Amino acid sequence: MGEEAKRYRVPSRVHRVEQEIQKSRFLTTAAPAPTVEEARAFIARVREEFPDATHNCWAFAVGPPGSTAQVGMSDDGEPHGTAGRPMLTALLHGGVGEVAVVVTRYFGGTLLGKGGLVRAYTACVQQVLESLPTLERVRKVRVAVELEYASVDGVRRMLAAHEAELVAETYAVTVGYQLLLPEHQLEAFHKALLDQTQGEVLFEVLDAEP
């Protein structure tokens, strides 16, 4: 997996833009979608907010930017392939992961034609992504470390440099830590841990985020 899949941009909050195209009013709302369930819940909320709209077309892509493993789309009554598909294509090329978008259209009396609809829905998604507030999503892994008491101070000092967060600790014959750290730091942290403890350490990766 490349570095770009381990660190990527996701929406930090719900964001909305509005534009008029050929007398039709388009409201485009984007939101964080870390899971399919959250994407569908957001879409339902927007549909409830604009029940009188001509169309509430939507698309979502859960996962890193460009990933098609968990996607969805709907034309919501627009001609087949003129809304959901171009919206999803724009999302997948937008450089943002875990995102859902609803384009709410109030028809203004002028027919756009199939090509015009594709251009309009593509432009709506591109416009909302341009101004979308984002934050960095970092894939993390949970690891277990077991070490001698003599190594505790040195190991604790090196945690911050590897962005490692101590989530649990036990003290018995040896010291046990559970740590959460960015996946891209894993190899360097393991090497530093071996150096710091002269190899007197047990290290196990427990799980990684999907």
UniProtKB/TrEMBL annotation:
InterPro entries: EFG_III/V, Impact, Impact_N, Impact_N_sf, Impact_YigZ-like, Ribosomal_Su5_D2-typ_SF, UPF0029_Impact_C, UPF0029_Impact_CS. GO terms for biological process: regulation of translational initiation. Residues 145-199 form the UPF0029 domain. GO terms for cellular component: cytoplasm. Residues 22-129 form the Impact N-terminal domain. NCBIfam families: IMPACT_YIGZ. Belongs to the IMPACT family. This is YigZ family protein.
